[in-house]
Amino acid sequence: MIKILFICHGNICRSTMAQYVFQHLVDLNNLSDRFYIDSAATSTEEIGNGIHYGTRRKLDQVGIKYGDHRARQIKKSDYDKYDYLIGMDSANIRNIRRVMGDDPEEKIYKLLEFAGSSRDIADPWYTGNFDETYDDVLEGCEALLENIK
Fold first, then answer.
1. Catalytically active residues, by annotation
2. Which pTM was predicted?
């Protein structure tokens, strides 16, 4: 089983969006039994809070199901538990590395790297643009799935 952890600052907008977009793609490709997918935060700011209403609204708009996810913070033990630790932006990557330390198994990536880009996925908490975030998350998730397949 391939275990993927999507990570952003608060775990209520981008990482949860990526979690459910990737799950949707996996389901469409009849690969659900091959993946375990979750998301987490680098900060403690939103711990226990549910998915941001803007993320829920965008996922509803595009017909992607989501669960009752509650924000949690990454922990060092996640490095051993997951095959991929995927951050949404450069600050996330710095914070992931701060928690995890070295990356000897090369598990830490920025999502859009899989699409051949070094761009960050903008945080809609600040931009308010969940459409742009969704487009970038979808691009990264599609490329990630292709890369793994």
1. 8, 14, 123
2. 0.95
